[in-house]
């Protein structure tokens, strides 16, 4: 089968090599999936640069790719049947969606809602699981207020409707040209960052989902209520994250030191700071069908679709930061 391989890390980025490798043989608890479509994400570029090696120390050569849709070829457990349309986030310990086939732990898989095409389905897992896992970590409740920083990107396109369907009041900020789109997604409050600072508009919000990182965290803590909860996707991992992820003791100590700045910032008003690195969870992904039934479907946005042999062009498209939607790799029949 053909697969896109990373042969070495490079902090400046390294091209992937598309070549033939053996088709994987599923192990216990795994299903063989024929990959139809994979999504290229910032996470893939982070892995190539070695940015996540402290969290997940992948060994090279490595089949790349974290997010996919595909069809079941065989399932030893019988939980899925051949031909079932499935999607998922690859398990952290064993990625490999940029390939014609993958052996995937069945616990990472969920059935694709009937109304989504395979291309649309490949847009969902990473951002949906990021949103769901963040909201679960915050222990959000209906009628609470959630601020999503920079919510006009791909995360907001998923997190806003999920939070809205869960009964939260959603606030976000961004460029005015995106206001109608994000309000249609379910945002209740929109702040044009060119005309107003969100710190002048928001006060005592219950939860903050940070997608911008270090430069915005002080202001995000400012608008968060005493006792509130901030979850960051771009900040620094802390000891709470390391413990939750089951990392070894020396990494818990390392991340405790690294994240101390934000833990202390949160402690000033009895707030909580958490870092999220999204993990595979097929059962959680299955909630998408519940939150977005056919009569109120989930909508996704696709920027451009490449072939597997164009994987480096796709990753460059993501790296440029100019995508208006997901960048996909069409792998079936590639």
Describe the structure.
- By secondary structure, the chain is of the alpha/beta class.
- The protein folds into 2 domains: 2-124 and 300-330, Quinone Oxidoreductase, Chain A, domain 1; 126-275, NAD(P)-binding Rossmann-like Domain (Rossmann fold), CATH 3.40.50.
- The chain has 13 helices and 16 strands.
- The protein has helices spanning 42-49, 118-121, 125-138, 154-165, 179-185, 198-201, 217-223, 239-244, 249-258, 260-267, 282-285, 287-291, 311-320; strands at 2-6, 17-20, 30-40, 62-63, 67-75, 85-89, 101-105, 109-111, 145-148, 169-174, 189-192, 205-210, 224-232, 272-275, 302-307, 326-330.
- Strands 3, 5, 6, 7, 8, 15 and 16 form a 7-stranded mixed sheet that branches.
- Helix 5 links the parallel strand 10 (169-174) and strand 11 (189-192).
- Helix 3 crosses helix 4.
- The longest helix is centred in the middle third of the chain and has 14 residues, at 125-138.
- The model has no long low-confidence stretch (mean pLDDT 95).
């Amino acid at each position: 089968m053909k697969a896109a391989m990373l042969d070495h890390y490079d902090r400046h980025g390294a091209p992937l090599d598309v070549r033939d490798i053996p088709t994987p043989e599923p192990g216990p608890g795994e299903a063989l999936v024929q990959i139809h479509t994979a999504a290229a994400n910032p996470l893939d570029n982070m892995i190539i640069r070695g940015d996540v090696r402290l969290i997940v120390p992948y060994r090279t050569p490595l089949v790349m790719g974290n997010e996919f849709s595909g069809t079941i070829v065989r399932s030893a457990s019988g939980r899925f049947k051949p031909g079932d349309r499935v999607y998922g986030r690859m398990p952290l310990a064993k990625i490999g969606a940029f390939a014609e086939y993958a052996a995937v732990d069945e616990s990472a898989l969920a059935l694709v809602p009937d109304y989504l095409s395979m291309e649309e389905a490949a847009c969902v897992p990473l951002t949906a699981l990021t949103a769901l896992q963040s909201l679960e970590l915050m222990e959000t409740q209906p009628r609470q207020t959630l601020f999503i920083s920079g919510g006009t990107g791909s995360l907001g396109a998923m997190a806003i409707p999920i939070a809205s369907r869960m009964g939260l009041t959603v606030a976000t900020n961004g460029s005015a040209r995106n206001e109608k789109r994000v309000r249609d997604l379910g945002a209740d409050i929109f702040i044009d960052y060119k005309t107003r600072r969100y710190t002048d508009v928001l006060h005592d919000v219950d939860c903050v989902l940070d997608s911008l990182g270090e430069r915005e965290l002080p202001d995000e803590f400012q608008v968060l209520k005493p006792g509130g909860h901030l979850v960051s996707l771009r900040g620094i991992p802390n000891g709470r994250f390391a413990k939750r992820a089951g990392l070894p003791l020396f990494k818990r100590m390392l991340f405790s030191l690294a994240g101390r700045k934000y833990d202390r910032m949160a402690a000033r008003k009895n707030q909580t700071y958490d870092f999220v690195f999204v993990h595979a969870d097929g059962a959680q992904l299955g909630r998408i069908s519940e939150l977005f039934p056919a009569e109120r479907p989930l909508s996704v946005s696709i920027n451009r679709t490449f072939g597997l042999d164009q994987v480096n062009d796709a990753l460059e498209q993501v790296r440029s930061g100019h995508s208006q939607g997901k960048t996909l790799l069409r792998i079936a029949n590639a």
